[in-house]
């Protein structure tokens, strides 16, 4: 069967209106064009589709059977067109965003608020996990974009990396270690003290493992935590010393419940980056969210 879709569309409109004149107006074509198309369709399908009268046209039993199928096909296609139009105009859609705890709490929320105010009908689907899991989700197509903490030697193969901002980690201690506040200390001289760090498998732990290795040391924390927001409270409680991003520690530093331990070694800054899979085609909504940062 090689009937052109336009023929079925004309058939649909004639059946819907029950009148060739009305169908011609809706399609912006002439009545002879409609009549010719219906006759051609009846010839191709080898059956009569309409009975004609002075009042208009009526579907034959064969025409009624065809109409049910053509109606379902046409309306499904047009519903698809409406949905695409809604996505294109950002009146519908979804953005799937991955974020680590650090980026979500201390960077991303204002951007989410701005996007929501601009595009209230776009759903924001958030995935919150550690950096390695988020990178794998990007590779697997589970999320569209990820806003993560990265560092220069980190493995982000297959990802397009767009740096957004940077932050500094500092070495901190609580009241039991106040004697470390003065002077500048070598990292190796502090190894014997109880330390607190993130658990293995996190990007933060990998970063500091590499930092210690660079200076010929091995990080053996006494307490390992699953979430970075617990580091400052644990140190504040006197349970050990350790590294934390400055913006995590700032409030406690200002209150005087913790203090910075000066180090001889310079801790490299880490970046907050926007990542997407190389070559991935983003939806209009995801592309619009991406553009928000630049």
Keywords:
single chain, 5-stranded mixed sheet, 3-stranded antiparallel sheet, rod-shaped
% residues in beta strands: 15-25%
Q: Which residues sit in consecutive blocks of at least 5 with pLDDT less than 50?
A: none
Quaternary organisation of the protein chains: single chain
Q: Note the main sheet.
A: 5 strands, mixed
Distinct helical segment count: 10
Elements, N to C (H/E)? HHHEEHEHEHEEEEHEHEHEEH
Could you give the distance between the termini?
52 Å
The pLDDT mean sits at 93
The count of strands amounts to 12
Helix/strand/pairing category: alpha/beta
The helix content is 40-55%
Radius of gyration over all CA atoms, rounded = 32 Å
Overall 3D shape: rod-shaped
Please state how the strands of the largest beta sheet are arranged side by side: 4-3-5-12-6
Write the layout of secondary structure elements.
Layout: H1 5-17, H2 20-27, H3 31-45, E1 50-53, E2 56-59, H4 61-88, E3 94-99, H5 101-118, E4 123-128, H6 131-140, E5 145-150, E6 159-167, E7 169-173, E8 196-198, H7 203-214, E9 223-225, H8 231-236, E10 242-245, H9 246-255, E11 259-260, E12 270-277, H10 284-291
Parallel strand pairs: 3-4, 3-5, 8-9
Antiparallel strand pairs: 1-2, 5-12, 6-12, 7-10, 7-11
Q: What would you say this structure looks like, in words?
A:
This protein has 294 residues and is an alpha/beta fold. It is built from 10 helices and 12 strands. It has helices at 5-17, 20-27, 31-45, 61-88, 101-118, 131-140, 203-214, 231-236, 246-255, 284-291, and strands at 50-53, 56-59, 94-99, 123-128, 145-150, 159-167, 169-173, 196-198, 223-225, 242-245, 259-260, 270-277. It has a 5-stranded mixed sheet with strand order 4-3-5-12-6, sandwiched between helices. A 3-stranded antiparallel sheet has the order 10-7-11. Strand 8, helix 7 and strand 9 (223-225) form a beta-alpha-beta unit. The longest helix has 28 residues, at 61-88. The radius of gyration is 32 Å and the shape is rod-shaped. The mean pLDDT is 93.
């Amino acid at each position: 069967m090689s009937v052109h879709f336009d023929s079925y569309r004309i058939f649909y409109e004639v059946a819907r209106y029950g009148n060739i004149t009305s169908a011609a107006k809706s399609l912006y074509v002439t009545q002879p064009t409609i009549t010719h198309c219906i006759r051609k369709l009846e010839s191709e399908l080898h059956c009569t589709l309409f009975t004609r009268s002075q009042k208009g046209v009526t579907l034959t039993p064969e025409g009624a059977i065809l109409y049910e199928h053509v109606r379902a096909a046409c309306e499904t296609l047009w519903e698809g067109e409406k949905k695409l139009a809604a996505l294109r105009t950002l009146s519908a859609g979804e953005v799937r965003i991955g974020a680590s705890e650090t980026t979500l709490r201390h960077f991303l929320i204002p951007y989410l608020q701005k996007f929501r105010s601009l595009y209230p009908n776009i759903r924001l689907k958030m995935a919150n996990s550690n950096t390695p899991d988020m990178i794998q989700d990007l590779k697997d197509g589970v999320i569209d974009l990820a806003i993560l903490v990265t560092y220069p030697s980190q493995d982000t193969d297959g990802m397009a990396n767009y740096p957004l901002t940077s932050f500094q980690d500092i070495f901190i201690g609580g009241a039991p270690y106040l004697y470390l506040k003065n002077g500048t200390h070598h990292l190796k001289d502090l190894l014997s003290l109880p330390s607190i760090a993130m658990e293995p498998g996190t990007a933060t732990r990998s970063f500091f493992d590499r930092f210690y290795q660079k200076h010929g040391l091995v990080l053996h924390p006494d307490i390992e935590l699953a979430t970075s927001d617990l580091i400052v409270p644990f140190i504040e409680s006197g349970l050990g010393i350790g590294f934390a991003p400055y913006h995590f520690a700032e409030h406690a530093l200002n209150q005087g419940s913790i203090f910075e331990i000066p180090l001889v070694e310079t801790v490299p800054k880490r970046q907050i980056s926007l990542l997407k899979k190389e070559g991935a085609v983003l939806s209009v909504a995801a592309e619009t969210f991406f553009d928000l940062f630049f």
